[in-house]
């Protein structure tokens, strides 16, 4: 299974990659919204782990554009936020 992690927190993204790799997943990492959108649009992923607060483009916008392009890859939203503002 191939996963994409889109998170600007490099240590967290690397920890996710290491942990998931130990369970047999192939994990690609990108650290900003535009790169995440590009990778998700052009890669073949089974799932995407997407941070909400990203530089360049929010996770919300990345997901909106993916769905508008009819990319239906499952997305798990990741955030440190404690509420919606």
Quantity of strands, as a count: 4
User: Helix count?
Assistant: 3
Give the class from helix and strand content and strand pairing. Answer: alpha/beta
| CA-based shape | globular
User: What radius of gyration results from the CA coordinates?
Assistant: 12 Å
Question: How far is it from the N-terminal to the C-terminal residue, by CA?
Answer: 34 Å
Query: Order of SSEs, N→C?
Result: EHEHEHE
Low-pLDDT stretches are: none
Strand order, largest beta sheet: 2-1-3-4
Question: How confident overall, as mean pLDDT?
Answer: 94
Strand count, sense and barrel status of the largest sheet are:
4 strands, parallel
The residue fraction in helices comes out at 25-40%
Topology:
Blueprint: E1 2-6, H1 10-22, E2 26-30, H2 33-42, E3 47-51, H3 59-68, E4 75-78
Parallel strand pairs: 1-2, 1-3, 3-4
What does this entry show, briefly?
With 85 residues, the chain is an alpha/beta fold.
């Amino acid at each position: 299974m191939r996963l994409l992690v889109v998170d600007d927190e490099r240590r967290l993204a690397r920890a996710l990659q290491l942990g998931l790799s130990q369970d047999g997943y192939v994990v690609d990492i990108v650290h900003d919204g535009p790169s995440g959108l590009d990778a998700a649009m052009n890669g073949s992923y089974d799932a995407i782990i997407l941070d909400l607060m990203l530089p360049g483009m929010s996770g919300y916008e990345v997901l909106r554009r993916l769905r508008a392009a009819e990319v239906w890859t499952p997305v798990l939203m990741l955030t440190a936020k404690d509420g919606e503002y």
